[in-house]
């Protein structure tokens, strides 16, 4: 669990997060991130760029890029870099989507095989324009990675596949180790934060994933600081447990540009600890709650913690 002292020691700078734009609230002193300057960061950048892959790390201006990429942990975003939705919090481009790149799964698998990873996270933009919502490209990517790197564990972070019949079933059949779909925020804020999405549908997709495979790990994440109340977070956590979700991630929302939703509040480390304790009491196998927690942050270590937590539960 992070505390203020540990954060100060591990995270050296937030200078690359600051820009000249005026935001409603100033970033607090407890949010410190590693500057993207290490040789590991640069070699991951080169590999991703040579393979012509998109990453959510870059597209969403993730604050953890310096730390994650220094270890070769990049989250590749398949199906192009243009999203068919326009969520108020998200920095990924939106508009008319790219053509499907049929070679993308193979370039992705080749790049992953060079990164020497134990665990990989694959995500995508929303592709409401495609009949299957992009499910086939997920399946091909999973298959190509398994073929080139058979021992790697695979986590998919998917869109909600609204009105895309059979999409979830296809993905679960390809046997990823973790199925992740983010609720992003509490029910009341959906219209403002996730226009075009449905809180109930997102809960259902998580529940259905577990119903389709009792051995898969399910995971979901939210951002805080958008105006939600603690009681509303409590209801959301309860809903996730009813959907049998194993792992929940909770991180601070950070406004990427002036045109995005404002941060209403920066939660303190103590408040994150309180939410983490609350979630553990509800029975999640794993909870990650800190200002810099993101869906794929420390996903490798967390996958091993998840496995251990399940084994412990089975052996009780
Ligand atoms: S937390 Fe996830 S999105 Fe952010 S840099 Fe790390 S791997 Fe990329």
In short:
This protein has 316 residues and is of the alpha/beta class. Helices cover 39% and strands 13% of the residues.
Q: Could you list the spans in which at least 5 consecutive residues all have pLDDT below 50?
A: 1-20
Helix content: 25-40%
Main sheet: which strands, in order across? 1-2-5-6-7-8-9-10
Major sheet details: 8 strands, mixed
Order of helices and strands: HHEHHEEEHEHEHEHHEHEHEH
**Structure classification:** alpha/beta
State the shape. Answer: globular
Q: Kindly state the mean pLDDT as a whole number?
A: 92
Distance between the termini: 24 Å
- What portion of residues belong to β-strands? 5-15%
Topology, number of strands: 10
Rg estimate, integer Å: 18 Å
Bound molecule types: iron/sulfur cluster
Word description of this protein:
With 316 residues, the protein is an alpha/beta fold. The protein is built from 12 helices and 10 strands. The strands form 2 sheets. Strands 1-2-5-6-7-8-9-10 form an 8-stranded mixed β-sheet, sandwiched between helices. A two-stranded parallel sheet has the order 3-4. Helix 6 links the parallel strand 5 (119-124) and strand 6. Helix 5 (104-115) crosses helix 6 and helix 6 (135-148) packs parallel to helix 7. Iron/sulfur cluster is lined by residues 56-57, 62, 64-65, 68, 73-75, 294, 296-297. Iron/sulfur cluster binds at residues 56-57, 62, 64-65, 68, 73-75, 294, 296-297.
